[in-house]
Amino acid sequence: MSSTSPAKVLFIVLDQMRADCVHGALASSLDLPNVRRLMAGGVTFASHYSVTAPCGPARASLLTGLYAMNHRSVRNGAPLAGHLPNIATEVRKAGYEPLLFGYTDTSIDPAGRDANDPDLKKYEGLLPGFAEGLRMRFEDSDPWLADLKAKGYAVPANHHELYRAQTGAASSDGTADGPYAAITGPALYSAADSDTAFLTDETLKALSVRETRNWFAHVTYIRPHPPFVAPAPYNQMVAPETVPAPAGLTGADALRASHPFFDAFYSQPSMKNHFYVGFDGRLERIGEDEARAIRAVYFGLASEVDHHIGRMLDYLDSTGQADETLVIVTSDHGEMLGDRHMWGKESIFDPAYHVPLIIRDPQRKKTAGQVIEHFTESIDIAPTILDWLGRTPPPGFNGYSLLPFLDGGTPDTWRDHVFMEQDLADPVSPTRYQRHLGLSLAECNVAILRETRFKLVHFNAGLPPLLFDMEADPAEAQDLAGDPAYAGELLRLTRRMLDHRMRHADHRLSAMKLTEAGVVVGG
In terms of CB atoms within 10 Å, which end of the chain has fewer, N or C? Predict the structure, then answer.
């Protein structure tokens, strides 16, 4: 693209949004008209996967184009090396000031920082290169809290209490009663004053004075991330009894007995108040009715975000910027939502990694409405944006541009599998996996290789692997790793995972050679 061409980028990332809410088993239960509108005008990548979880590592991969094995910010709080190039530092080379509205969950590199630097006392730091258009972090959202206070809300000292559902007389309409009112009751704040609404308001305000310029806006919504509480009317937009029950919700005992990983998962309660304020952390006690209530609020939060995505799209249309703006909507990672009796993203099952990706390119309208089934990964988004802006991704990026798909073709060589990994340890407070399984910091991790049919889950430290036939068993309920009939597949996939890791090891410098002519970069 010529540097003088109108070229704006709206890069929206949701938090903890599953792909099948957009296209799949749950899609018919949600009202997402603006996501559907974007799909009709863009290209949907139906087999798109985050390469890691949770939020910090997932966003590090998303924004650096690197697998977690290469950027090594493998958990919330693990520093991201400051020398690594990323989407923000690279778009600056194209003349853009990359604006962030929300958060990147980047734990900053402590090199050269004083021990008293406040940035070293929080994991929700700013990715180098971004300019904060709005500081809106989950645990550090002062602008939103100040807005609520100015509007007359009694903002609690512990702002986590803002996410407590209002019940009984405290509810604005008095209807939030019943056995699951602590989940389905409305939020303290109105829909017009929610964190999602505030973020959108401030983003549109900032962009309104940039309409005659090119801009790059990274907009990150915390929703539908827990604590699950939604403002009215979104808290009751979906009736719990109409929500599909979680797949394979047969009780935690059978899951625990099936593999040491699941036994460790349930070896202690989860974080109290994490899924909703008032939750006791006992995931194994969540039955079908409570699961439906949680899912209903999750769906309501997704609908709220959809409404505000619509406001962003309306703004582009009304100001004549739609034909100049690349729009990308995706999520950092998924959410189990009770499937296989698991919640959150600390999992090895597909719903924790399979996420939506929709790209609307104003220059490539001929492919509008198409759905791509080829495997794509979160590390492909940064090189796609750079390619669209006419920039060559820096050496070492693991992902690939998706523009060939937007042009209606398929690259001559493209992956036929996705690779995912997750670290399950903590260097300060050993996790339930470290304690229950007796694993060291370096051993407490898992890697996953998923093809169209087979999926291998490889645990470190000699723990038994898992093998699933995703065509015959999409719910991942039957482990085939111990079946002699599948020993050949297990060996093939293990070798393939090793090949993948060796082929994609950090080559930012190893692909270079110093010669008499200077630095030469190889293919």
Answer: C
Query: How much is the pTM?
Result: 0.96
pLDDT of residue 305: 98
Q: Is 16 left (phi over 0), alpha (psi -120 to 50) or beta?
A: left
Cα 446 to the center of its chain, rounded Å: 18
Q: What share of the chain is helix, strand, coil (3-state, %, to 5)?
A: 35, 15, 50
| 55 counts as catalytic | yes
pLDDT of residue 521: 85
- Measured in whole angstroms, the distance separating CA 139 from the mean position of its chain's CA atoms is 17
- Asked if residue 385 lies in contact with residue 328, where contact means CB atoms within 8 angstroms, the answer is yes
What are phi and psi for residue 260, nearest 5 degrees? -60, -30
CA dihedral 335, 127, 444, 255 (to 10 degrees): 0
Q: Which long-range contacts (CB under 8 A, 24 or more apart) does 148-152 make?
A: 148/189, 148/193, 151/193
CA 141/CA 136 separation, integer angstroms = 5
Q: Please give the pLDDT value at position 177.
A: 65
- Are 341 and 284 within 8 A, CB to CB? yes
Residue from 196, 218, 194, 195 nearest 206 by CA:
218
- Residue 291 CA to residue 335 CA, distance in Å, equals 13
The list of the chain residues with pLDDT below 70 reads 1-4, 169-177, 523
Of the residues 55, 277, 286, 372, only one is catalytic, namely: 55
Q: Which residue, chain included where needed, has tokens 């065509």?
A: 471
d(CA 384, CA 365): 17
Task: Please name the amino acid found at residue 101.
Answer: F
Per DSSP, what are the bridge partners of residue 52?
A: 421
Whole-number pLDDT of residue 508: 86
- Calpha distance 244→240 (Å, rounded): 9
Nearest to 245 by CA among 286, 287, 292, 290: 292
- Dihedral sign for Cα 216, 35, 126, 333, please: negative
3-state per-residue secondary structure call for 460-519: CCCCCCEEEECCCCCCCCCCCCCCHHHHHHHHHHHHHHHHHHHHCCCCCCCCEEEECCEE
User: Residue 421: CB partners within 8 Å, gap ≥ 6?
Assistant: 51, 52, 67, 68, 69, 445, 446, 447, 448
CATH topology of domain 8-521: Alkaline Phosphatase, subunit A (3.40.720)
∠ CA 59-73-11, nearest 5°, is 15
Write down the pLDDT at residue 175. Answer: 53
**CB burial string 181-211: b at 16+ within 10 A, e below:** bbbbbbbbbebebbbbbbbbbbbbeebeeee
φ and ψ of 102, to 5 deg: 130, -120
